[in-house]
Write a structure and sequence with these properties.
The complex is a heterodimer of chains A (about 180) and B (about 600).
Chain A: H1 2-24, H2 37-46, H3 53-64, H4 69-79, H5 83-92, E1 104-109, H6 112-116, H7 119-130, E2 143-148, E3 160-162, E4 165-167, H8 175-182
Parallel strand pairs in A: 1-2
Antiparallel strand pairs in A: 1-3, 3-4
Chain B: E1 5-10, H1 13-33, E2 40-45, E3 57-60, E4 65-66, H2 74-84, H3 108-111, H4 129-134, H5 139-146, H6 150-160, H7 172-181, E5 188-193, H8 202-209, H9 211-225, E6 229-234, H10 239-254, E7 259-262, E8 267-275, H11 285-292, E9 316-320, H12 321-333, H13 335-339, E10 349-356, E11 362-367, H14 372-379, E12 389-394, E13 400-403, H15 413-418, E14 427-432, H16 437-451, H17 457-474, H18 480-496, H19 500-504, H20 507-515, H21 517-524, E15 540-542, H22 552-556, E16 562-563, E17 571-572, H23 582-586, E18 592-594
Parallel strand pairs in B: 1-2, 5-6, 5-9, 6-8, 10-14
Antiparallel strand pairs in B: 1-3, 3-4, 7-8, 10-11, 12-13, 12-14, 15-18, 16-17
Helix pairs in contact in B: 1-2, 5-9, 5-12, 6-7, 8-9, 8-10, 9-12, 16-17, 16-20, 17-18, 18-20, 20-21
Classes of the chains: A alpha+beta (about 180), B alpha/beta (about 600).
C-alpha cells in the first residue's frame, strides 16, 4: 500500500513537472530544433554508461547554446528516462539554460575578489550600455549578460568573459569598447 | 634535441587570459624570424602562482624571471636574451636591481613558500608525460605496485598525518582504511575537483599545471583500497583543466600507466571525467556522488559515509585535488618526511589563493603554521594602495573573517576554527578599510541563497531569512531585534541543516557580527555605513569653503545631479544622486565629502 502511494506521488510530481515544462520551456513554434546525427551518435555512445544524463546535456548545450524544448523530449526518449528527470536536472544546475542566450554571452564574475573590486558596478554599467537587465537578451539577439561565480582568475579581478574569452582588470569606461569589439563581428 | 635556452611561458588560465596565448605564439614566431629556432624552445608550463604580475616568463638555464610580459616584448626577449645572452632589465621583477635579483627565489613573493603540491607547476609542460616522468613522476605508483602492500601505503599516510584539503580536514589514511576494510566486488575512487568556492582557484591551477600527479595519486588510491575505477568530478567552468586532464589520461594509457595491467603487474585501473554544471553544493561529497550519477546534486544524511556506501552504492574514497597531489611525494619520500613540515595537528603545506585588496595576488603554498602576517605582508606585499588592513576571509561562504589582532595566529585547522573561521579549500581574501563587513556578510549569504539545494528547511529558509534581514540592515531598515534573530537562526542552522553547506552558511555572518559588532550597530542605530559601501546609507556633499567651481565633478556625474556655474560653488541634488562616488574620486580639492 505504502509503495503504491509513493509511486502515485512520484507519478503526480512527474506530471506536474512536465506541465511546468510545457509552460516554461520555449514554445514549439519558435523552437524547431532537432538533434543532429552527431548528437544522436554521442547519445548512443553514452547510453550504456550509468549516470550519463549530465554529460549528454553538456554536449547538447554546447551545440545549441541552451537546451531547446524539443531536444529535451528527444534526449529523454533516447536515454529512456522520464522527461521530468531531464527537466529536474536542467533546472537544478546553473549552467544549463532553457532560453537561448545572446550570440555573445557576457559573463561577469561575481566571485568574492571581483565583488570587492567592483563587479557589481560592471554589471550595472553593462546593463546601461546594452539596455537590458541580467539574464535577458538584447532585442537584436547579440548580447546577454549573466553574473557568474568565480571564473578562477582572481588575480585579474574584476573579470568578465565574452564567449569564454576573458578580460581582466576591467574598468567601467572600457566596457563600451569591449562591447563594440564584438558587435556585428 | 637539446636547446641552449628554454623559454617557459605560464599557461595557467589567468596568464592565458591576459594575452598569454598570444605571447606564446609571438615568441615562437620571433625565434623563427630571428633565425634562432634551433637555439631556444618555447615551453608552456603550469601556473607560477604570481598571477598579479602575469603573464610570467622564465628563462632556462639561467632562471631569469620576467613579469608582466606582453606579446610586444617577445621580439626584445629573443633579440637580447636568446641571441645576445643579456636579460631584458625592464621586464625583471625588481627593475632597479641588476641580474643578481632576477631569479624566482630572490623574489619576496616566493621566499617563504614551500612547494610540494605545486612542485611541478611552472616547471614542466603539463601536456608532456615525459617531463612529469623526468621529475620522478609515476615512481610512487611503481613503488606502490611492486614494493608496498596496501597496509604499508596506509601506514605511510598515517605517519604523514595528511588531512583532507577540501575543507573539513579529515585524516586521509582513515578514509582509505575504512574503504579498504569494506568487502565489495566493486569500489570507486573519486577526485573532487568541483572547486566552487568563489575566490579560490588552487585546484584548477594544480590540475592545469600538473595533471599527472592527480592521476598517479588516484591510481595509488585505487590499488590501496581495492578499486578499479576512478572518477574525476570537475567544474565545467574550467575548460583548460579538462583538456589537460583528458590529454594526460590518454598519455598515461599509452604508456601503460593507466588502464589494463598497469606496469605489467596485473593491476587494472581506469579514470573517467565527469563534469559538474555549476552547483556549489556538489562539492559536498554525497551531493557530488548524486551528480556523478546524473541526478540533481542533493546531499543525503551521513552515515552511511561514502567509504561504506558511495557511488552506485559501493564503497568510495573521495578526496580533493590538493590532497591527491600530496600523495606521490609522501609515498616517495616517506610519511616521516612529510610530518616534519607543519604544526602538531596539521602536517605538510597548504595552497592558498591570495586575492582581494593585496599587492601580490596569486597562488601560494606555505607550510602549515605560517602566520597570516607573513602571508599578507611578506608574501603578499601588503595592502594595495597603502590602505589599512581590515580583515582576511578564509573558507569562503563556509568560513569567517580574521581581524588584525589575530594576524600572528599560525594557520592550521585548529587555530582557524578557534577564531570562528575554517581552513576551507584555501581561498584567502584580503579586505581593506573600504570594505563594509555587513555588505560582505550579505554577499556571502546571497551566494548561499543561490546555492542552497532546497532539500532541508533550515538551509532553504534560513539562508533566505538571514539574507533579507541583512539587506534590510544595509538599506537602513535594520533593528536591534534583527541581530538577535540572525543569531538565533544562524545557530539553529549550524545544528539542524542536513549538509556542510547549510551548517556553515551562517559562519560569515556570525563571524562578522562577533568581530565587527560596531559596524552592525552603526548601520542599525546611526543608519550609517562607516566604510561608505552601502549606498543607501551614505550622502555626498560639496564643502562650500573648498569648492573652487572647476566643474570637474559636474562633468563626471553620470546622472547630472551636480549643478553650479564655472568658478561658483557647486551643489549636489540629493534627489537625483545615485551615490556612485564618482565626484569624490574626481575632485582634486577635497571638496566632496561623504557622510
Amino acid at each position: 500500500m505504502l509503495s503504491l502511494e509513493i509511486q502515485f506521488i512520484s507519478l503526480t510530481t512527474e506530471i506536474a513537472e512536465v506541465l511546468i515544462l510545457n509552460t516554461t520551456m520555449e514554445k514549439p513554434a519558435a523552437d524547431d530544433k532537432k538533434l543532429t546525427p552527431e548528437l544522436k551518435e554521442f547519445i548512443r555512445q553514452w547510453k550504456p554508461k550509468p549516470g550519463n544524463l549530465i554529460m549528454v546535456l553538456h554536449r547538447v548545450q554546447e551545440h545549441f547554446g541552451y537546451i531547446p524544448r524539443n531536444v529535451a523530449f528527444e534526449v529523454a526518449d533516447l536515454l529512456d528516462v522520464p522527461l521530468a528527470r531531464v527537466y529536474g536536472v536542467v533546472t537544478f544546475y546553473h549552467l544549463f539554460k532553457l532560453k537561448k542566450p545572446g550570440r555573445f554571452k557576457i559573463a561577469v564574475c561575481m566571485g568574492t575578489a571581483c565583488y570587492l573590486k567592483g563587479g557589481e558596478d560592471i554589471i550595472k554599467e553593462l546593463e546601461n550600455i546594452l539596455g537590458v537587465g541580467l539574464n535577458a537578451v538584447t532585442p537584436d539577439g547579440e548580447f546577454s549578460v549573466e553574473a557568474v561565480r568565480c571564473l578562477g582568475c582572481c588575480g585579474l579581478a574584476p573579470v568578465l568573459s565574452v564567449n569564454g574569452e576573458v578580460h581582466g582588470n576591467v574598468k567601467k569606461d572600457q566596457l563600451a569598447e569591449i562591447v563594440a569589439k564584438y558587435k556585428g563581428t | 634535441m637539446a636547446f641552449k635556452n628554454y623559454i617557459l611561458v605560464c599557461g595557467g588560465a589567468g596568464c592565458e587570459a591576459n594575452r598569454g596565448v598570444d605571447l606564446y605564439k609571438t615568441l615562437q614566431k620571433e625565434l623563427q624570424e630571428q633565425g634562432v629556432e634551433n637555439e631556444a624552445q618555447v615551453v608552456k608550463t603550469g601556473c607560477f602562482g604570481f598571477c598579479e604580475k602575469g603573464p610570467i616568463v622564465k628563462m632556462l638555464p639561467d632562471e631569469t624571471f620576467y613579469v608582466s610580459v606582453k606579446p610586444e616584448d617577445a621580439k626584445e626577449i629573443v633579440a637580447e636574451h636568446v641571441v645576445k645572452g643579456r636579460p631584458v632589465a625592464r621586464l625583471l621583477y625588481d627593475k632597479t636591481q641588476s641580474r643578481t635579483n632576477a631569479k624566482l627565489e630572490d623574489i619576496d613573493f616566493y621566499q617563504k613558500q614551500v612547494r610540494i603540491v605545486l612542485r611541478n607547476c611552472g616547471v614542466i609542460d603539463p601536456d608532456s608525460i615525459d617531463e612529469y616522468i623526468a621529475r620522478d613522476g609515476y615512481d610512487a605508483l611503481a613503488k606502490v605496485l611492486t614494493e608496498m602492500t596496501q597496509d604499508q601505503v596506509i601506514e605511510e599516510l598515517k605517519k604523514s598525518g595528511l588531512r583532507g584539503r577540501g575543507g573539513a580536514g579529515f585524516l586521509t589514511w582513515k578514509k582509505w582504511m575504512f574503504t579498504k576494510q569494506v568487502a565489495s566486488n566493486e569500489k570507486y575512487v573519486i577526485c573532487n575537483a568541483d572547486e566552487g568556492d568563489p575566490g579560490a582557484y588552487m585546484d584548477r591551477s594544480t590540475i592545469e599545471g600538473d595533471p599527472h600527479s592527480i592521476l598517479e595519486a588516484m591510481t595509488i588510491a585505487g590499488r590501496t583500497v581495492g578499486a578499479s575505477q576512478g572518477v574525476i568530478y570537475i567544474r565545467a567552468e574550467y575548460p583548460l583543466a579538462i583538456i589537460r586532464l583528458e590529454n594526460a589520461i590518454k598519455q598515461a594509457k599509452d604508456y601503460g600507466l593507466l588502464g589494463e595491467n598497469i606496469l605489467g603487474t596485473g593491476f587494472n585501473f581506469n579514470i573517467e571525467i565527469r563534469l559538474g554544471a555549476g552547483a556549489f553544493v556538489c562539492g559536498e561529497e554525497t551531493a557530488l556522488i548524486a551528480s556523478t550519477e546524473g541526478r540533481r546534486g542533493m546531499p543525503i544524511p551521513r552515515p552511511p559515509f561514502p567509504a561504506v556506501r558511495g557511488l552506485w552504492q559501493k564503497p568510495t574514497v573521495i578526496n580533493n585535488v590538493e590532497t591527491y597531489a600530496n600523495i606521490p611525494m609522501i609515498v616517495l619520500r616517506g610519511g616521516d618526511w612529510f610530518a616534519k613540515i607543519g604544526t602538531e595537528t596539521s602536517k605538510g603545506t597548504k595552497v592558498f589563493a591570495l586575492t582581494g585588496k593585496i599587492n601580490n595576488s596569486g597562488l601560494i603554498e606555505v607550510p602549515m603554521g605560517t602566520t597570516l602576517r607573513e602571508i599578507i605582508y611578506d608574501i603578499g606585499g601588503g595592502i594595495r594602495g597603502g590602505k589599512a588592513f581590515k580583515a582576511v576571509q578564509t573558507g569562503g561562504p563556509s568560513g569567517g573573517v580574521i581581524t588584525s589582532e589575530y594576524l600572528d595566529t599560525p594557520i592550521d585547522y585548529e587555530h582557524l576554527q578557534k577564531l570562528g573561521s575554517i581552513m576551507g579549500s584555501g581561498g584567502m581574501i584580503v579586505m581593506d578599510e573600504d570594505d563594509c563587513m555587513v555588505d560582505v556578510a550579505r554577499f556571502y549569504q546571497e551566494f548561499c541563497v543561490d546555492e542552497s539545494c532546497g532539500k532541508c528547511a533550515p538551509c532553504r529558509i534560513g539562508t533566505r531569512t538571514i539574507y533579507n534581514l541583512l539587506t534590510g540592515i544595509c538599506q537602513g531598515r535594520g533593528t536591534m531585534d534583527d541581530l538577535q534573530k540572525i543569531n538565533e537562526i544562524g545557530r539553529a542552522m549550524q545544528k539542524a541543516a542536513l549538509c556542510g553547506l547549510g551548517q556553515t552558511a551562517p559562519n560569515p555572518v556570525l563571524s562578522t557580527m562577533k568581530y565587527y559588532e560596531k559596524e552592525y550597530l552603526a548601520h542599525i542605530k546611526e543608519k550609517k555605513c562607516p566604510s561608505g559601501k552601502c549606498r543607501d546609507l551614505v550622502t555626498y556633499y560639496i564643502l562650500p569653503n573648498k569648492c573652487i567651481g572647476c566643474t570637474v565633478c559636474a562633468r563626471r556625474c553620470p546622472v547630472g545631479a551636480i549643478t553650479g556655474e564655472r568658478q561658483k560653488i557647486h551643489t549636489i541634488n540629493q534627489e537625483t544622486c545615485i551615490k556612485c562616488g564618482e565626484c569624490l574620486k574626481a575632485c582634486k580639492f577635497s571638496a566632496v565629502f561623504r557622510r
